[in-house]
Amino acid sequence: MSIKVYKPTTAARRQMSIISADGYTAHEPEKSLIVIRKKHSGRNAQGKITVRHKGGGEKRFYRLIDFKRDKFGVPAKVMTLEYDPNRTPKIALLYYRDGEKRYIIAPADLQVGDTVVSSKEKCEMKIGNAMPLEHIPVGTLVHCVELVPGKGAEMVRSAGSWCKLMAIDGGFAHLRLPSTEVRMVPQACFATVGQVSNAEHMHVIIGKAGRMRHMGVKPTVRGKAMNPVDHPHGGGEGSNPIGLKHPKTPWGKPALGVKTRKHHKPSDTLIIQRRKKQV
Q1: CB count in 10 Å sphere of residue 151
Q2: What is the pLDDT of residue 201?
Q3: Are the C-beta atoms of residues 9 and 16 closer than 8 Å to each other?
Q4: Helices and strands per DSSP (H, E), number in the chain
Q5: pLDDT digit string, tens, across residues 53-95
Q6: Rounded Cα gap, residues 248 and 252, in angstroms
Q7: Domains in the chain and their CATH numbers?
C-alpha cells in the first residue's frame, strides 16, 4: 500500500493525504461477520458526557474479528484484504476448509491466496500463523499477543506495530513491546507471527477539520483561549502561558503527561524494564 497525496486544488486539499485503495481486494464486508455499531457520543449509561469531543461521524458497521484464533489445526485461505473503519490495519477474510469464515488482523506482506493456520503445537513459522509463544523461536517479531491464555489478543494490534520475543524463561515469555517496555507474558499465550499491516498509516495527513468530523471527532478548544470562568488556564490580555505550576483539566485535575496507571498494580511484577521516556 502507499500514500496518495492530493493536488492542492483548495487550501484544505494542500498536503492532504490518504492510504491508497490499491491494497484492498474487496470493498464490501462479509455480511455474516458485521453487526451494527451503536454510537454513544462519549456518554455513559446516565447520559452524561464522560469523554469529550465525540459525536457525529459516518455510520459504521463493526467487523467481528477473531482475536482468539481458536480454530486449531484447520487451514484457512486468505480470500480478501479489506478496509476496516474501526481500526488502523487492514483485515483479512479467511475461508476455512470446513466452510467457516472469519476475519483476522492482516499481517504485513500477507497476500490473497495464502494459507494460514492456528495450532496449539509448533507449526510452520509463516506470516499469519498463530501459536503459543513457547513454540515461537526467540527473536521473532509477533503481534496480536494475549495477556491471559485463551482470552484473545489484547496487545500489539494497531497498524505497523510489532513486538519482539526476547526469551523464554520460567514459564514466561519476555517481550519487547512497541513502547520499548520489556514485559513477561505466560508462555502459553497465543501470538501471531509477523508485523501488523498498514505501517504507512502514521504518515497520513488529515488536512482539514471536516475530515475529523467525518471520523466522529468534534472540535477541541484550548483552555488558554477561554475565560477564567470556563477553564483554569483562561484569562489574561492577549496570548498568555498557562500560568500554573502544573497544567489542569477544566475541573482542576492535573493534566498533560500525568501518569494514570494505578500504583502497586499486581501486574507490575511482570514488567522487567519500563518504557523509555520520549524526548
Answers
A1: 12
A2: 94
A3: no
A4: 1, 17
A5: 999 999 999 999 999 999 999 999 999 999 999 999 999 999 9
A6: 5
A7: 3-202 (2.40.50.140)
- Return the C-alpha cell found at 87: 481500526
Q: How far is CA 265 from the centre of its chain?
A: 23
What CA–CA distance (Å, rounded) separates 134 from 175? 12
C-alpha cell at 23: 491494497
What is the helix (H) or strand (E) element at residue 212, kind and residue range?
helix 209-214
Average pLDDT of the residues in 221-235: 94
Cβ-contact 177, 163 below 8 angstroms: yes
Neighbours of 181 (CB within 10 A): 15
Distance CA 183, CA 209 (A): 38
Residue 140: which residues within 8 A CB-CB, separation 6 or more? 125, 164, 165, 193
Whole-prediction pTM: 0.89
Q: Extract the C-alpha cell encoding 7.
A: 493536488
DSSP string, 136-150: SPTT-EEESEESSTT
CA 157, CA 126: separation in Å to the nearest integer?
18
Q: How close are the terminal C-alpha atoms of the chain, in Å?
A: 30
Q: Three-state SS for 134?
A: helix
DSSP SS3 for 168: strand
SS3 label, residue 61: strand
